[in-house]
Design goal:
With 127 residues, the chain is an all-beta fold. 0% of the residues lie in helices and 48% in strands. Strands 2, 4, 5, 6, 9, 10 and 11 form a 7-stranded mixed β-sheet that branches. It has a 4-stranded antiparallel β-sheet with strand order 1-3-8-7, with no helix packed on it.
Length: 127
């Protein structure tokens, strides 16, 4: 059974920083370890669709970013404990959303490709 758990959200002023963490564990029904999955972060603001933020390959060597966060957010992965981090810098009020971590067999920006999702963590940026 695969489990994905986010943490680290909170309230921060514009221009501030936060670091989100995502711990993924377990095996799929076919016996594949989630540590061999790529991981991604998505976000969803009230009344809006879920949007891609960043992704990292299973090895941690390849990363992908949405244009809206390039240069401000950074995704990284510690393979030893299969934890993925999302460093959020220079935060803007429009970054306010629930941030979700998810696992996918191969890196993708498409939410429907992801098999396992966490419950989400709220990030609120005040102006």
């Amino acid at each position: 059974q695969v489990q994905v758990q986010e943490s680290g959200g909170g309230l921060v002023q514009a221009g501030g920083s936060l670091r989100l963490s995502c711990a993924a564990s377990g095996r799929t029904a076919l016996g594949r370890s989630v540590s061999n999955y790529a991981m991604g972060w998505f976000r969803q603001a009230p009344g809006q669709e879920r949007e891609f933020v960043a992704a990292v390959s299973w090895s941690g060597e390849t990363t992908y970013y949405a244009d809206s966060v390039k240069g401000r957010f950074s995704i990284s992965r510690v393979t030893a404990n299969n934890t993925v981090y999302l460093q959020l810098n220079s935060l803007k009020p429009e970054d306010t959303a629930v941030y979700y971590c998810a696992a996918v067999p191969k890196s993708s920006v498409m939410a429907d490709r992801y098999d396992y999702w966490g419950q989400g963590t709220q990030v609120t940026v005040s102006s």
